[in-house]
Specification:
Elements lengths: L13 H25 L6 H24 L4 E2 L1 H12 L6 H13 L14 H5 L17 H4 L2 H8 L1 H19 L3 H24 L20 H6 L6 H6 L15 H11 L3 E2 L6 H18 L8 H23 L4 H30 L1
Antiparallel strand pairs: 1-2
Helix pairs in contact: 1-9, 2-3, 2-4, 2-9, 3-8, 8-9, 13-15, 14-15
The chain binds zinc ion (2 copies).
The site of one zinc ion has 7 residues, from helix 2 and helix 4.
Length: 362
């Protein structure tokens, strides 16, 4: 079914539709009223930016990477923060959000995908939120999450919680900065609209524009510009291929503040069991994707067969070493061998990529 065909008056979720259309208008009206009444205080932008990060990253580090994908474990304090400030992003309860998101990964790009990009940018961005949920999915919550007491409580008291953390707390902050109205307009409603679209872009933009270094079996793309707006979630091609990895921007230099927050939380003792994809698996996916792209262009890679063979061997050795590592009591020797093997793999991979790219331009 085409997204636009679902837009019928009798099929609209009026609460969501009015909220999504009226909040941008309310921002304009409230900011104008605030400036007229109290003048604009640029310092008001500091808590607004902080709340942009706290509420948005409660979605990306909490709703997404913790609750939906279980890519790490968190203590109750961290979960509480995510659930309180995630509610203030007005994107539904974690329980509902995660159910939709898991459906997105399982049925990516088909009609069971709630934000199926094949139904258009607008549908994937926010259209799907504005129509009533199909009967068969209504209340189909993730069982493992429903049995988490904190998640269940947030679901039950979602409305008062989102008003508290999304609007009341910002208004109080504004009050102490000299303008309650300014707090509501800038830190509250305006920030909600901004966070909305930054995170909605992950379902629209990240499935339309960018590169596909790891897989082309779905529409997810890597996009640095989007990563900047979306707390690091723009590396969406990596995420769709390695969805249990707590990182989306997997290289140390890739902008992924959500990954850095999870690392910091682990250092503070609030998070543990961070899941990482091994480097050999990542390189393997990259190599296969490059091979696939070059084959489409008709490139003959047979001259690089010997390099490819040493890559395959290094990957097999690493897989074996990691199996041994799991069983070993003294790990230092095995870790040293893994390091050496990874070094050899990286060198072979670089040689292969360099020559394969030259072939491409031959
Ligand atoms: Zn995901
Ligand atoms: Zn996606």
């Amino acid at each position: 079914m085409e997204g636009k065909k679902r837009f019928r008056l009798n099929n609209l979720d009026w609460v969501n539709t009015l909220f999504l259309t009226l909040t941008p208008l309310a921002t304009i009206v409230l900011v104008a009223a605030y400036v007229k009444k109290d003048g604009f205080d640029p310092l008001m932008l500091i808590p607004a930016v902080l709340m942009y990060f706290i509420s948005g990253m409660s979605i990306t580090a909490g709703y997404h990477r913790l609750f939906s994908h279980r890519s790490y474990q968190a203590n109750s304090f961290l979960k509480f923060i995510y659930l309180l400030f995630g509610a203030g992003a007005f994107q539904n309860s974690a329980l509902k959000w995660c159910t939709d998101h898991r459906r997105h990964h399982t049925h990516c790009d088909d009609e069971k995908d709630p934000y199926n990009i094949r139904e258009g940018f607008w549908w994937a961005h926010m259209g799907w939120v504005m129509v009533k949920e199909e009967e068969k999915y209504n209340g189909a919550y993730a069982k493992d999450l429903a049995s988490d007491k904190l998640v269940w409580l947030q679901h039950k008291y979602y409305l008062p919680l989102c008003v508290l953390s999304g609007f009341i707390i910002p208004t109080i902050i504004g009050y102490f900065m000299g303008s309650a109205l300014g707090g509501l307009a800038v830190i509250g409603v305006g920030r909600v609209v901004f966070v909305h679209h930054c995170t909605f872009f992950i379902n629209s933009w990240a499935h339309m524009w960018g590169t596909q270094p790891y897989t082309d079996t779905n529409t997810a793309k890597d996009n640095f510009v989007l990563a900047v707006f979306s707390y690091g979630e723009g590396y969406h091609n990596f995420h769709h291929y390695f969805q249990t990895d707590y990182r989306n921007g997997v290289r140390w230099y890739q902008y992924d503040p959500t990954k850095w927050l999870i690392n910091l939380s682990a250092k503070a003792g609030w998070a543990h069991s961070l899941k990482r994809t091994s480097e050999e698996e990542i390189l393997k996916a990259k190599l296969e994707m490059t091979e696939k792209n070059l084959a489409v262009k008709g490139a003959d890679l047979s001259a690089l067969d010997h390099v490819k063979q040493s890559i395959d061997e290094a990957i097999l050795n690493l897989q074996e070493l990691r199996r041994e590592l799991k069983k070993a009591s003294d790990t230092s020797e095995l870790e040293g061998r893994i390091k050496e093997e990874l070094k050899a793999l990286r060198a072979a991979f670089d040689t292969w990529s360099y020559n394969a790219t030259k072939l491409n331009f031959a």
